[in-house]
Amino acid sequence: MYKLVPNFSLKDHNSFGVDAGASYWLTLTSPDSWKEAIARYPHLLQEERLIIGGGTNLLFLSDYDGLIIGTDICGYSIAYQDSTIVDITVGSGVDWDDFVAYCVENGWYGVENLSLIPGKVGAAPVQNIGAYGAEAASVIHCVDGINLDTCEPECYSHDQCRFSYRSSIFKEKLSGKFMITAVTFRLKKQGEVDSSYGDMKRIITDLGEPNLLNLRRAVIQIRESKLPDPRKVGNAGSFFKNPVVTEEVAWALEELLPGLPVYQLSEGYVKIGAGFLIEKAGWKGVQMGHAAVHDRQALVLVNRGGATGQDIFELSLAIQKDIFEKYGVALEREVQVIE
Ligand SMILES: Cc1cc2nc3c(=O)[nH]c(=O)nc-3n(C[C@H](O)[C@H](O)[C@H](O)COP(=O)(O)OP(=O)(O)OC[C@H]3O[C@@H](n4cnc5c(N)ncnc54)[C@H](O)[C@@H]3O)c2cc1C
Known about the structure:
This protein is α+β, with helices and mostly antiparallel strands. It contains 7 helices and 20 strands. It has 3 domains: 2-71, Uridine Diphospho-n-acetylenolpyruvylglucosamine Reductase, domain 2; 76-188, Uridine Diphospho-n-acetylenolpyruvylglucosamine Reductase, domain 3, CATH 3.30.465; 234-338, Uridine Diphospho-n-acetylenolpyruvylglucosamine Reductase, domain 1 (Alpha-Beta Complex). The protein is globular, with a radius of gyration of 20 Å. Flavin-adenine dinucleotide (FAD) binds at residues 15, 50-58, 71, 92, 117-120, 122-124, 126-127, 129-131, 170, 179-180, 227, 230, 235-237, 336.
C-alpha cells in the first residue's frame, strides 16, 4: 500500500517549519509499496528524490522539485532473544522516542541515553544519532530496506553500515538510493545505566535509584531545559557538528577559551564543543531577519516565525565564516540542507 499526493506542502513535515512544497509526496506503508507505486507510476523513477522521516534534521532552501518518499511502516517484532539479549526489529515509521520508551518499559538496555531525540526509527542509522555519551551504532544489529533503483530488498549488517560520528553509508554512498524499512536493534536484558555524562549522575541521584526509568527521566529533564521544543519554536537541534581537531589545536584553543569542552577520541584527536565556540564568538541569541541563534543553546538555530530556509541558511553561513576567522575552526553542518 502507498499514498501519492502531488503538490504537497512540507510546512508540517520539517521541524524548522519552513514553508516549502514538493512536486510529489509518496508514503510507503509496507516494504512492497515502492515496487507497487513504480509499477503504477513508472515516471516517478525519473524524478529527483529525497527520503524523509520526521523532517527534524532537514533545511529546505526552496520548493523541492521532485519526489519525497516518507515511511509509515510501523510495528515491532522480536527476531531473537535469550536470557541476556533481545534483537528487536522496528518499522522505520515508528517514532524514535516511542521506541525508546518501549525498551525502557521492557527493561532493555541500550537506547535510554537517546531519549527524546525527535524523528523516526528509520533515520536513526542514517546519521548514527547520538547524545549523552551514546550512539545508535552501538545497538544497531542490521538495517533492512529497499534499493530504490532495483526495487529489491537489501539488508546491511552492522559492519556494512560503516557507522562513524553522525554518519553512515546511508548518509554517504546510499543517500537517496536506499529506503530503510526496518532496523534491528540488539539490546541487553541486564546492565547498568551510563550516567557518566555531564551532570546526569546528580540529577539521577535526586530522582532516586540509578535505573533505566530514572536515566530516561534525567535525559528528558536535561533536554527539555536546554533545547527548544520544535512544536513551539522551529529548529532542527544542533545545526553544526562538534569539530574534530588535533590535540595541539585544542590546546591552543583552550588557552584562548578557558573551559572549552574537549572530548578525547582516538590517539591525537579530540572533539571540541561547537556550541561553546559559537557562544564565545558572541552569537547566542543573535537574530538575522526571522532566523536566530537560540538564546539558551548556541548550537541551535531557530525560526522566530516566518523565516525562510534561505534566512536560516544565511545565518549559518555567517556563523561558519566568523568562527573560522576567529578560531581557525571549520564548522561542518549536521543538518542536511536541501536545495
Ligand atoms: C530539538 C531537536 C533535538 C535533536 N537532538 C538530536 C540529538 O541529540 N542527537 C542527534 O543525533 N540528532 C538530534 N536531532 C536531529 C534529528 O532528530 C535526528 O537526526 C533524527 O534521527 C532525524 O529523524 P527524522 O525522522 O526527522 O529524519 P529526517 O530529518 O526526515 O531525515 C534525516 C536524514 O535521514 C534520511 N532518512 C530519513 N528516513 C529515512 C529512511 N527511512 N530511509 C533512508 N533514509 C532516511 C533523510 O533522507 C535525511 O538524510 C535533534 C533534532 C531536533 C529538532
